[in-house]
Design brief:
Helices cover about 75% and strands about 0% of the residues. It is an all-alpha fold. Helix 1 packs antiparallel against helix 2 and helix 1 packs antiparallel against helix 4.
Length: about 130
C-alpha cells in the first residue's frame, strides 16, 4: 500500500465511515419501503433478476452499514461491492432498458457520487478498521 495512505487521520476515518453508514441506511430504508409496497418486483419495467438484486440490497445495505459502525473491514469491503454493482445495475437500467442518460437520472448521479466517495476513501480507511 502507498505510504501516505497509512496516515489518514482518525477523525477522517470516523467521518467517512459515518457518512457511508448513514447513506447505506438510507438506501436500505428505500429498498425496505419498496419491498413493503410492491414485494420482490417493485419495478415493472425491470427484469426479475434486477428487481431481485435491488430487493436484496435491503439486507446487504443494512449489513454493510452495521459492519462499518462496528469498525469492521468487512463493512468497507461489502460497501465497495455494493456501490460498484449497484452503480453498474442502475447504469444498465438507465441506458440499456430505459434508454435514458445521466443528465435525466438524478438518482444515478447521486449514486455515482456515493460510489466515488466509498471507492475513493476505502484504501485510506481500511487500515484503521479491524478484522
Amino acid at each position: 500500500m502507498i505510504g501516505w495512505m497509512h496516515h489518514a487521520p482518525r477523525w477522517a476515518v470516523i467521518s467517512a465511515c459515518s457518512i457511508a453508514a448513514a447513506l447505506l441506511f438510507i438506501g436500505a430504508s428505500a429498498h425496505v419501503t419498496d419491498l413493503q409496497r410492491h414485494g420482490l418486483h417493485p419495478y415493472d419495467w425491470a427484469p426479475w433478476w434486477l428487481n431481485l438484486y435491488w430487493s436484496s440490497l435491503a439486507l446487504f445495505d443494512t449489513l454493510a452499514a452495521v459492519l462499518l459502525i462496528r469498525g469492521k473491514c468487512q463493512g468497507i469491503d461489502l460497501a465497495c461491492v455494493i456501490v460498484a454493482t449497484d452503480l453498474a445495475a442502475n447504469w444498465y437500467a438507465a441506458y440499456g432498458i430505459q434508454d435514458s442518460n445521466l443528465a435525466a437520472q438524478p438518482r444515478l448521479q447521486r449514486l455515482a457520487v456515493f460510489a466515488a466517495l466509498v471507492l475513493g476513501t476505502a484504501p485510506f480507511i481500511r487500515r484503521h478498521l479491524t478484522n
